[in-house]
């Protein structure tokens, strides 16, 4: 992508590239959370990330989402190196281009569903009065149009994750980053949430999803396997029909299990 592009062409842009990214945490002994990792997310692609606990999945997501900066290598979004941006420029980029979904939903407990969804709109020029109607549109879209004024504690886990997805969509981001979004949900609710992600992908959004469940990862086009902070291998699953867990085996290993 040519670097002279201006923000107007947001629909054709959206390439995210990690080049030789490294991140080391110093907690007494240095922990090499990521090492020499290079990865490109093409616009509109759907990538799953798998790997054992501690292999660097969340660290990778945080790097690609500008929540953290690498201490080696670069992350580029639309051809711009994130490391060259100021803190506030990075926050604006994160707030307008990227939507985050987390395993534990991360909703503000004292705010209603609608208020949670309006929070990221401060990064965009959405006029105050328009925010609630925009939140309603987004909550309608995830099937919660009748729960606008409910607090998170008044919602089920699946409903909370739907609110979190609506919040992630607040500024129509091109990139959605999800860290084990179904990890705290039963398999049926998780399947509903996956349908939402598939819709977002079908709309042309770029999605990166961390999961330890094989059948979830198979819904993506490819699986990036991490091991000890390094890219182990990339598996093409675009032609794989996801192995849906059978209805009658609901009690069997809801957490997948092989590499959790
Ligand atoms: P995963 O998401 O695959 O379980 P993480 O990316 O969370 O793995 O962590 C990778 C490694 O980096 C682990 O060894 C973890 O303990 C370490 N780590 C992650 N975040 C921090 C942090 N903020 N401070 C110190 N060590 C961290
Ligand atoms: Mg993690």
Task: Please provide a brief summary of the model.
With 260 residues, the chain is α/β, with parallel strands linked by helices.
Summarize the SSE layout with pairings.
Elements: E1 16-27, E2 29-41, E3 46-50, H1 57-64, E4 72-77, E5 80-81, H2 87-97, E6 98-102, H3 113-118, H4 128-141, H5 157-168, E7 175-179, H6 187-202, E8 206-210, H7 214-217, E9 222-227, E10 230-236
Parallel strand pairs: 3-8, 3-9, 6-7, 7-8
Antiparallel strand pairs: 1-2, 1-4, 4-5, 9-10
Helix pairs in contact: 4-5, 5-6
The structure holds adenosine-5'-diphosphate and magnesium ion.
CATH architecture of the domain at 43-57 and 86-238: 3-Layer(aba) Sandwich
Class by SSE composition: alpha/beta
**Strand-residue fraction?**
25-35%
Largest sheet, described in full? 6 strands, mixed
Give the number of DSSP strands: 10
CATH-defined fold name of the domain at 43-57 and 86-238: Rossmann fold
Helix content: 25-40%
């Amino acid at each position: 992508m040519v670097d002279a592009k201006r923000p107007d062409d947001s629909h054709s842009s959206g390439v995210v590239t990690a080049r030789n990214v490294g991140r080391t945490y110093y907690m007494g002994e240095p922990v090499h959370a990521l090492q020499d990792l290079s990865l490109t997310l093409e616009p509109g692609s759907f990538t799953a990330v798998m790997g054992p606990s501690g292999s660097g999945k969340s660290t990778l997501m945080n790097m690609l989402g500008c929540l953290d900066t690498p201490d080696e290598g670069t992350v580029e979004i639309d051809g711009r190196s994130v490391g060259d941006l100021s803190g506030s420029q990075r926050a604006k980029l994160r707030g307008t281009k990227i939507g985050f979904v987390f395993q534990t939903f991360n909703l503000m407990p004292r705010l209603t569903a609608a208020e949670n969804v309006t929070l990221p709109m401060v990064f965009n020029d959405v006029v105050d009065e328009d925010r609630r109607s925009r939140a309603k549109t987004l909550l309608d879209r995830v099937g919660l149009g009748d729960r606008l004024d409910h607090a998170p504690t008044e919602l089920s886990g699946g409903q909370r994750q739907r609110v979190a997805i609506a919040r992630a969509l607040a500024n129509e981001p091109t990139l959605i980053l999800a860290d084990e979004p179904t990890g705290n949900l039963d398999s049926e609710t998780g399947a509903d949430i996956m349908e939402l992600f598939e819709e977002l992908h079908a709309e042309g959004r770029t999605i990166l999803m961390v999961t330890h469940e094989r059948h979830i990862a198979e819904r993506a086009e490819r699986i990036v396997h991490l091991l000890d902070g390094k890219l182990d291998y990339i598996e093409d699953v675009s032609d794989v029909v996801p192995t849906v867990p059978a209805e009658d085996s609901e009690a069997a290993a809801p957490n997948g299990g092989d590499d959790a």
